[in-house]
């Protein structure tokens, strides 16, 4: 219940009709790197047990080490879906741009925009959404010097 509630609140703040939107937007404008990492950990707690990914393997992603197992690739897909960066391995381009502009600190926005632009089509034509998500994340890693991931 808690995990679903966190996701619903996160999704809500990006919808115009959300009752928390105005207050939440004011809070998000000053979001820090530490706050981003705390939020990312919450998302990780949803997906990691679902696919039985050990902490060491999940931590390797931050250093650009990507496991080649189906479970790991589906874990990546789960996280990208929760963050609304992608849906089933396909980039949510407009939502991602909106999140970059709304949520991220100004100092890292250009790097995230560049990564999104470079990778927006990388998953097209790949039928396995877990595989597409893994390829997408690896592209983000290569094309975003400020890369971070739960």
Automatic annotation (TrEMBL):
<dbReference type="GO" id="GO:0005576">
    <property type="term" value="C:extracellular region"/>
</dbReference>
<dbReference type="GO" id="GO:0035275">
    <property type="term" value="F:dibutyl phthalate binding"/>
</dbReference>
<dbReference type="GO" id="GO:0007608">
    <property type="term" value="P:sensory perception of smell"/>
</dbReference>
<dbReference type="GO" id="GO:0005549">
    <property type="term" value="F:odorant binding"/>
</dbReference>
<dbReference type="Pfam" id="PF01395">
    <property type="entry name" value="PBP_GOBP"/>
</dbReference>
<keyword id="KW-0964">Secreted</keyword>
<dbReference type="GO" id="GO:0042048">
    <property type="term" value="P:olfactory behavior"/>
</dbReference>
<protein>
    <submittedName>
        <fullName>Uncharacterized protein</fullName>
    </submittedName>
</protein>
<dbReference type="InterPro" id="IPR036728">
    <property type="entry name" value="PBP_GOBP_sf"/>
</dbReference>
<dbReference type="InterPro" id="IPR006170">
    <property type="entry name" value="PBP/GOBP"/>
</dbReference>
<comment type="similarity">
    <text>Belongs to the PBP/GOBP family.</text>
</comment>
